[in-house]
Amino acid sequence: MFGDFNDRQEKYLSHILTSGRHLLQLINNILDLSKVEAGKMKLNLEPFSVNRVIDEVQTIIKTLAYKKNIEIQLDLCPEVIMYGDPAKIKQILYNLLSNAIKFTPEKGLVMIHTLEAAEGVPVDRGGNNPVTVGAKSLLLSVKDTGIGISPNDQERIFLEFEQSEQTRGKGYEGTGLGLALTKKLVELHGGQIWVKSSVGQGSEFTLLLPIKGVAPDNETANSDGESA
Ligand SMILES: Nc1ncnc2c1ncn2[C@@H]1O[C@H](COP(=O)(O)OP(=O)(O)OP(=O)(O)O)[C@@H](O)[C@H]1O
Ligand SMILES: [Mg+2]
């Protein structure tokens, strides 16, 4: 109606759009976290294809990776049908992948790896802290060649508003809510999440999710006697 925008107008409009999207994501994260804390977050459990969900998230994340010249590599086990909430699993993956891209410099690499783990198999979580798989599970990891996380920060970053020494106040976008929400969504699925990383050497976030899901009361299926 008012004709074409000039270059400056277009630039400002794109800033407004980006800021609007960030704000929406922030509000959604806060709402989701409050919902979980109020015990009102319900999972819509159904059987779904894990590879399909990975493919869908990858389509969304590809542009972010492309902008930083980051390659995404997949190493997926043959089709796994999991019982869970596909939208929430997608949200979990999106959070991990967007972090991996955000904290990896240009021309880096992000890898998604999946593996089926049988009941009773020990899984190395780094340090002196292995876990035994409770019921047949999916191991899904997102690994990057980014800036890494120091040992002091590796537990803290899963708490609300916590960011690592390397990134806090360094101009990275974000408020430190993504991983807190991710961990809660993983636990609602009866799963666990942990990170292995060293500064400057990249990070690997791994999920352990029971393939048959959890009872609707969200009883923990991968319980090893502690909350990870
Ligand atoms: N792949 C990674 N490499 C290095 N550091 C990471 C990685 N993922 C997370 N972190 C560290 O953990 C912190 C918490 O991550 P989280 O996703 O919760 O917050 P955020 O990305 O800063 O903000 P938000 O997700 O709310 O937009 C990050 O700020 C960063 O310091
Ligand atoms: Mg994040």
Show the helix and strand layout.
Elements: H1 7-37, E1 46-49, H2 50-67, E2 71-75, E3 81-84, H3 86-102, E4 109-117, E5 122-123, E6 131-132, E7 137-144, H4 178-188, E8 192-197, E9 203-210
Parallel strand pairs: 2-4
Antiparallel strand pairs: 1-3, 4-7, 5-6, 7-9, 8-9
Helix pairs in contact: 1-4, 2-3, 3-4
The structure holds adenosine-5'-triphosphate and magnesium ion (MG).
Structural commentary:
With 228 residues, the protein is of the alpha+beta class. The chain is 34% helix and 21% strand. It has 4 helices and 9 strands. The chain has a 5-stranded mixed sheet, covered by helices on one side. A hairpin with a 5-residue loop joins strand 8 (192-197) and strand 9. The longest helix is centred in the first third of the chain and has 31 residues, at 7-37. The radius of gyration is 18 Å and the shape is globular. The chain starts with 6 loop residues before the first helix and ends in an 18-residue tail after the last strand. Adenosine-5'-triphosphate binds next to helix 3 and helix 4.
Provide the structure class: alpha+beta
| Count of distinct strands | 9
Q: What is the count of helical runs? A: 4
Terminal CA distance reads 56 Å
For this entry, give a set of tags.
228 residues, alpha+beta, Heat Shock Protein 90, 2 domains, two-stranded antiparallel sheet, 34% helix, binds adenosine-5'-triphosphate, binds magnesium ion
What is shown here, in short?
The protein is α+β, with helices and mostly antiparallel strands and 228 residues long. The chain contains four helices and nine strands, in the order αβαββαββββαββ.
